[in-house]
Amino acid sequence: MKTLLMFVLLASTLCWFMFAPIYKHVFLVRQAVLQKEVDYMLEVGAAGGFGYIDGSMIAASRERLAAYGMTADEALYEVTSTSGLSATNPAAPLIRGTGLILTIRYPYERLFEIDRLIGLTPPDPATRMSATGMKMSEYVP
């Protein structure tokens, strides 16, 4: 009986040592992709010709996230400004010097489920990782 218990404990620990780094890598790549997307969207949205991030820009961003294997519909976008004005209205872009803030949130899903093998409780699948950035608008009317 002790031998069987030792085998089960050793096998589960061995599985965790082999596969946990892969899931951690997937987590790190997803976080990097989200931050890269935030930086890109802010660079485009705060440029002199725009001063906003609208629905078409968000739709294009969802397509880019889907190209990395992420579920595009799961990403939540939050676009705000430092002045409190709408940052998504192309008819009223943010003027130069107003901060454009973008946050993208994406669920962890079940990435850390393998951590149960060693007794760790993984985060709830509905919990979300996020990437945030701010850039000053360069739009001049």
| Intertermini distance | 79 Å
Q: Which H/E pattern describes the elements? A: HHEEE
Spans of at least 5 consecutive residues with low confidence = none
* Percent in strands: 15-25%
Quickly count the domains: 1
Approximate helicity band: 40-55%
Oligomer: single chain
Radius of gyration: 21 Å
- Major beta sheet, strand line-up: 1-2-3
Principal-axes shape call = rod-shaped
Structural class from helices and strands? alpha+beta
- By DSSP, the count of extended strands is 3
How confident is the prediction overall: mean pLDDT? 88
Largest sheet: 3 strands, antiparallel
Count of helices?
2
Structural overview:
The structure is a single chain. With 141 residues, the protein is α+β, with helices and mostly antiparallel strands. The chain has one domain. 40% of the residues lie in helices and 17% in strands. It is built from two helices and three strands, in the order H-H-E-E-E. It has helices spanning 2-45, 55-67; strands at residues 76-81, 99-107, 128-136. Strands 1-2-3 form a three-stranded antiparallel sheet, with helices on one face. The termini are far apart.
Write out key terms for the chains shown.
single chain; 141 residues; alpha+beta
List the helices and strands and how they pair.
Layout: H1 2-45, H2 55-67, E1 76-81, E2 99-107, E3 128-136
Antiparallel strand pairs: 1-2, 2-3
